[in-house]
Design brief:
220 residues, 9 helices, mainly alpha, 5 helical Cullin repeat like
């Protein structure tokens, strides 16, 4: 028989454990080892769900992550243009990496509260938070810098460019309209099929890229 968990117990004992684990997951660098017991956190969530604290826990989780993302957004706003793209890439990668741990830890809450009562999904909700609190606020600064970087070879690494473009497409597919040619380099089938009349233009673009690569010391 499970001991009764009062709302005071939840606030003083259970949520602080979850809060601290979420903090560590949100701020870890890729490849970091985190000294938290996944089993303990998982069991904490399970007990709170069984004792009807799902609504409070969901509300606390959303508030916690929203506050974190607002801080991330402010830090990005303060970034100089030459570091902006790289820092956005790190913020996006770090957050998506954290979700891979946070979502499974809250699987019981997702199953017995978010899916059944709210008809939603935790991962979708948390991705939406990043879209609203970070990406939407930065897209109009970010896009011109990405286009500029794309026309200046080797300003940023191809993997950074690919991560950001694919990430933005995942967050909001309609952002393709802002820079169709850029998105089409990393996302298959986002542009209409090529017309025969445009093939010469594509060939010319390809030759220009080849020339730029050779000028920058890349041999075939």
């Amino acid at each position: 028989v499970m001991n009764v968990i009062t709302i005071e117990d939840y606030k003083s004992t259970y949520w602080p454990k979850l809060d601290s684990a979420i903090d560590q997951l949100l701020t870890q660098s890729p490849g970091d080892y985190i000294p938290i017991s996944y089993e303990q956190i998982y069991s904490c969530v399970y007990k709170c769900v069984c004792q009807q604290h799902s609504e409070q826990m969901y509300s606390d989780l959303i508030k916690k992550i929203t506050n974190h993302l607002e801080r991330v957004s402010k830090e990005l706003q303060a970034s100089p243009p030459d570091l902006y793209i790289e820092r956005f890439n790190i913020a996006l990668g770090q957050y998506m990496g954290a979700l891979q741990s946070i979502v499974p830890l809250f699987i019981y809450m997702n199953k017995f509260y978010i899916e059944t009562k709210l008809n939603r999904d935790l991962k979708d909700d948390l991705i939406k938070l990043f879209t609203e609190h970070v990406a939407e606020k930065h897209i109009y600064n970010l896009m011109p810098l990405l286009l500029e970087a794309q026309s200046t070879p080797f300003q940023i690494t191809p993997s950074t460019m690919a991560n950001i473009v694919k990430g933005l497409y995942t967050l909001r597919p309609e952002w393709v309209q802002m820079a169709p040619a850029l998105f089409s380099k990393f996302i298959p089938n986002v542009l209409p099929p090529a017309m025969e009349s445009e093939l010469q233009e594509y060939a010319a673009q390809d030759q220009k890229l080849q020339r730029e690569l050779i000028q920058n010391g890349f041999t075939r």
